[in-house]
Hints:
133 residues; alpha/beta; five-stranded mixed beta sheet; 5 helices
Amino acid sequence: MADHPIILFDAECVLCSANARFVLRHDGAARFRLASIQGAAGGALCREHGVDPADPASILVVEADRVRRDSDAILAICEGLGWPWRLLGAFRLVPAFLRDPAYRWIARHRYRLFGKRDTCWAAPPEYRERILP
């Protein structure tokens, strides 16, 4: 799994879980691995990179020694999915100091806007090998 970027997401968040499902469906090359921030592997990676798993405020993409968060993480995912999603990488032309406040506002209000699950989302069986425990 070290050869694959890892997406750390909040599996209790309806929006975050929908994003995880989207990535699994559209990542035809099986490039990404996913880890729930609430899980053992995801929680450890979060703590390693300065995110409190009990209060996740960002999605992270961990690839080797590089960690992307906030809007950079979203754009890295889009770029990694290939065509046509790669086109969204054009938003990198917008400076992060303009992109990130919008991302952070949505992240702070995600449960109120999109809902919170009573239990963590679990991937369908055909994707389980791409999910870290």
